Amino acid sequence: MNQEINSPFRYAGGKFYARKLIINHIPRHDYYVEPFAGGASVFFAKSKVDRNWLNDIDKDLVNCLTIIRDHPNELIGRLKGEVATKERHAYYKNEYKPKTELESAARWFYINRTSYSGIMNIQNCYWGYGEKYSMRPENWPRNILRTSTKLQDVKLTSFDFEKVIDDSPDNSFLFIDPPYFNADQEKFYAYSFENKDHFRLSKILKKHNSRLKFLLTYDDSPEVRELYDWVHAMH
């Protein structure tokens, strides 16, 4: 499936609105890698290549993607009849205790689709569904099925980004979208990205710069400019 589709998730800091601009700057490649997939808006909007790898440190997010890829009809069945209400959102957030990977995926999907801006730090996520701008539950099955089709044969992992970059084959193209240097990490994400991680990222990319191609998105700050004074910057 090479058609453009939207990400199945809402995701804080995602690149949905910039996806077409980003794709215009992606060079020809046969192996595509996202070490910080998140909502993976760029992957879903671009054509698939021979090999594709989506990674995210958030194990619940990756589990949901895996269930969508491998068991879409079971997930649809688990969500069948759900309604988008504050009460159901509060139930899934505070009371529901999943016992299986399928149940965990259903919980994550429901909370994501009904939370404000897709914020998935459970401490800070709150009801944010609106009939005019949110995907209605009756459309979730179609969303899940088309996502499952595009995810076929895609490698899904939940590793530290260094392992992903180290293990990417020569001449791979990496779209790298880490949390911004000055972002409010603890508010938006289940896993925070510390200053030392920004330095680790710059170091590992510089190490592999001669064998990998990458496009990196960041906030414009003096710290980032200093960390990446060795790359070509696009504004």
Give a concise summary.
By secondary structure, the chain is an alpha/beta fold. The protein is 41% helix and 9% strand.
Description:
The structure is a single chain. The protein is an alpha/beta fold. It has a domain at 19-82 and 133-227: Rossmann fold, CATH 3.40.50. The protein has eleven helices and five strands, in the order αβαβαααααβαβααβα. It has helices spanning 19-23, 41-45, 59-70, 72-79, 86-95, 101-114, 140-151, 161-167, 185-188, 195-207, 222-227; strands at 31-34, 51-55, 155-157, 173-176, 213-216. The chain has a five-stranded parallel sheet, sandwiched between helices. Helix 3 crosses helix 4, helix 3 crosses helix 6 (101-114) and helix 8 packs parallel to helix 10 (195-207). It starts with 18 loop residues before the first helix and ends in an 8-residue tail after the last helix. The mean pLDDT is 91.
Top keywords for this entry?
Rossmann fold, alpha/beta, 235 residues, five-stranded parallel sheet, single chain, globular, 11 helices
